[in-house]
User: What shape does this take?
Amino acid sequence: MKNAAGREIPGSIPGYKEFTPYAGPFVTHPTVRKAGPVLKAVYPGADKVVKTLDEAIEASGLKDGMTISFHHAFRNGDYVINQVVAAIARKGIKGLTIAPSSFLDTNDELIPYFEQGVLVAAQTSGLRNKLGQFLTTNKLTKPVVIRSHGGRVRAIESGELKIDVAFLAAPTCDIYGNINGVDGPAACGSMGYAMVDARLADTVVAITDNLVEGPICPVSIPQHQVDYVLKVDCVGDPKGISTGALRITSNPRDLVIAKYAAKVIEHAGYFKEGFGMQLGAGAASVAAGKYLRDTMLREKIAASFAIGGIVGPFCDLLDEGLIGTLFDVQSFDSRTIESIKNNPRHQEYDCTFYANPWNKGPMVNRLDYVVLGATEVDVNFNVNVMTDSNGIMMGALGGHPDASAGAKCTIICAPLMRGRLPMVTDAVQTISTPGETIDVIVTDRGVAVNPLRQDLMENLKGSGLPLFSIEELKKMAYELGGTPKPVPVSDEIMGVVEYRDGSVLDLIRRPM
Assistant: This one.
């Protein structure tokens, strides 16, 4: 059968749950009660501190076939995931599902543990580098499940993803288990992803390199959610946070895209005092904030809030009074970590508050604008941020589908060409975000508005932007780079891209 995004979805998928195909961004509704962890009691005089990682694993009760989780606030500076999995392997435990909030390049070290059967399944929002290639080309017992940040929280809170043991990198922790991310030598800022795992995992192990007597202040994750505390030499290198897609650009092409995106915001119809926004962490998205600042100063307009993963330029806007408050689910650089520690208008919040579609109102629902990146887009405005031109997993859903569904105006920034490859195509390799939730495509050659948004088209006509149809942008791209050839794939399903509500948006088939 074909789902509402036009992708062929079989009636069942071996190793995967019973499911419904994607039927639209707001069609599938919750029908279950919120899940919860096993109730436990800790009595006066109990000591939560364990001495070794082996002792922590034994105390957690981890057994073959369970599910473990981690957070990715340290990104490529994380030291915890690889160390914990290596220790689990030494203990002979096998058949685990690993469900981190995301994988990063540093997690290439996990490949041998998939080969050995220590890890047999993965559920995450992102896969990159050699691990992404390995999981694309090597068969696991179950398909890899790719979820957005909001979709991951939905799955945890609904009981669909049951975490047995969460191992949480804790920049600062006291002896009774209170955690924060703003103190210590490895401060990472917001603990927005870890908060969810701490609240709902059956067992929580806090791993810290800054163990204090306590109680600490502030507290991001409270002691009543933490079972065990382990002191190690180092949990991570904060310098590894600002890597990968996170960069400030001086590339002329990126700056043109950023200028166009800022002009779309100015003229689309929602640029008014008190608007709400999210800018992605890609180069053009970050640069768009710089140009938007100039417009905000000129027009004397301030945003009431900004959300998402937060970068330093947003903190500057906060200090200037151009943003009323920041809601920070992940801090992306040292400037942001300093801001969330010292500025009371810079708020830490968890991922369910940010993007969970199955609660009483995530912050993405209040967005006027979101500016995001893309690997490729197609003539139906579908976006791919997951797979490269060879069909290999190399990216992350992140909050892309969540913010796109919630925002009044979703703006996608992408160059028309990367190398000799067109980035506007007839059909994307993998749908990460459905086209009906995308409003404007911004490239270095021009801007296309989704035909479903004639109101935006009318508003942008007098903006001075180079406006084209999406077909015209595709034609330009093909004239420059030639018609892209579809990636030949096998019948074998190696991954499932869930929409944020848990329905199946697309399948990732193994390249031939």
